[in-house]
Design brief:
With 365 residues, the chain is of the alpha/beta class. It is 40% helix and 16% strand. The chain has a seven-stranded parallel beta sheet, sandwiched between helices. A six-stranded parallel beta sheet has the order 10-9-8-11-12-13, sandwiched between helices. It has two domains: 193 residues, 3-Layer(aba) Sandwich (Rossmann fold), CATH 3.40.50.2000; 151 residues, 3-Layer(aba) Sandwich (Rossmann fold).
């Protein structure tokens, strides 16, 4: 059997999507019977301490409050680096696993950590997300920074893991001597989502709508969905709900009551209400590497329309629909067909934790 791996999971760049993703992996590893350590940074809207199971050795640091502190953490995460070494030395850790961006470690202490431990990096996006045409210079510069530091971490780490089969293949092609491990994407359905104790006030008395849910960014193709819905003729039958925080990056008629824009972070306790009242869910991304959004839709038994990017194609159900990325006409046709077919059953997503942990163990050997 060999000595059980002693793993310190690091997740110091939290975001609404990354917190349940990282927590799902950490919890699965612990539930499989492995002693587990985690170093995390809390988030203003949520925290790992709410999601991680009792018994996990958790060190959680507060998120920096000022803009200067947040920028400094990107370029020199000295406090996190010291904490990693302290935890690792005291507990005879052999594997350091970066679960989120960890961009600062690409510039500071990443090479040092790789010399002392088996450094594993979960890669989210090998390719840079396309910039919105209206994106300010600061946003474009940060996008480039995230891409460059991601590539540097790929070069530094001993092992790369990913929940995208196509991305694993691409990394292996680019870095043939590097160890690359595929693992299942953990479900983003948290206990708060399952409880679903709160309703969405913006949707009081409204149901049977077409739903987009997620952070509002250019590469998710929300503008394509808006155009397709307008020309589909479905405005007389239902409404379109576009829910998620982010700047509007395309012109739209804000007076149109048939289109509801919820521009804020939705709490986990509201998600059940949001999905249960939807007719079906649309993810019109023009680029995606891996994402847990489909797992939420399937948990609530909702059918999905998604662009035919490899990750979505690998994870849809038989009654879902795919359309070519960026093809508004094909999306329009899919909306009309799905509206008529929405009563067809949708299989829910099962628990994949045992497969996920088995795959991760390969990364620690």
């Amino acid at each position: 059997m060999g000595t059980p791996p002693r793993v310190l999971f690091v997740a110091t760049y939290p975001s609404p999507g990354m917190i349940p993703f990282a927590a799902g992996i950490i919890n699965a590893f612990y539930e499989a019977g492995h002693e587990t350590w985690a170093l995390t940074v809390s988030h203003c809207a949520d925290s790992f301490s709410k999601l991680l199971l009792p018994g996990i050795h958790l060190t959680e640091c507060p998120e920096p409050s000022s803009t200067i502190q947040k920028i400094a953490r990107h370029f020199r995460p000295a406090k996190a680096a010291r904490a990693i070494c302290d935890i690792a030395d005291k507990n005879h850790i052999t594997n350091i696993h970066f679960l989120t961006g960890e961009y600062g470690f690409a510039l500071y202490r990443g090479i040092m950590l790789a010399r002392r431990y088996n450094l594993v990096y979960t890669l989210h996006d090998l390719e840079k997300h396309p910039d919105s045409p209206q994106a300010p210079l600061k946003e474009r510069l940060f996008n480039e920074y995230f891409h460059q530091t991601t590539m540097r971490l790929v070069r530094i780490a001993h092992t790369i893991t990913s929940s995208s089969k196509s991305q694993c293949h691409l990394v292996q092609t680019m870095f043939p001597h590097k160890k690359v491990v595929f693992h299942e994407f953990p479900s983003l359905v948290t206990q708060g989502i399952k409880r679903g104790t709160r309703t969405v006030p913006e949707l009081k008395g409204i149901d049977n709508y077409i739903l987009f849910f997620g952070t509002y960014t250019h590469y998710k193709g929300v503008d394509l969905l808006y155009r397709a819905f307008i020309q589909s003729g479905l405005r007389e039958k239902c409404q379109l709900v576009m829910a998620g925080a982010g700047s509007d990056f395309f012109p739209r008629d804000i007076s149109d009551s048939r289109i509801i824009r919820i521009n804020r972070f939705l709490d986990d306790e509201e998600i059940a209400d949001l999905f249960k009242k939807a007719r079906f869910v649309v993810y019109p991304y023009i680029q995606v590497t891996q994402s847990g959004v489909i797992s939420i839709a399937h948990y609530f038994g909702k059918r999905v329309i998604a662009s035919s990017l490899p990750f979505f194609a690998d994870n849809i159900n038989e009654n879902d629909r795919l359309f070519p990325p960026g093809d508004v006409e094909a999306l329009t046709k899919s909306l009309k067909l799905m509206y008529d077919e929405a009563a067809l059953p949708c299989a829910t997503t099962g628990d994949n934790n045992s497969r996920l942990v088995a795959q991760l163990l390969e990364a620690y050997r």
